[in-house]
Amino acid sequence: MLDEVLRAVVAIGAVLLILVPEARGVHPQLGWLPLWLLGMPLIAWWAAHRFRLPGRAVDDAERRPSRPLRRRLPQARRRVRPRAPVGGLRTAA
């Protein structure tokens, strides 16, 4: 149902943009008409189908690692430095 409605709106918007020159302009309340006649219905149709983002098409084979993942080791602890003598630094004589 939604798919059919969005297809019809996209088709009507495309026909209006092609045949009516005023549809390619700007309306004072709506703004740029091609955005509302074609852009927004196309985005709604794209979102309704949950398409992937353009330019991010990755195969399932590329997404899965070819070798098993390494087991994570616990984080290494910092070494404790010996504290300086309380009396200050001593110099060699």
TrEMBL record:
This is Uncharacterized protein. Keywords: Membrane, Transmembrane, Transmembrane helix. Residues 66-82 have a biased composition (Basic residues). Residues 63-93 are annotated as: Disordered. The chain crosses the membrane at residues 35-53. Residues 83-93 have a biased composition (Low complexity).
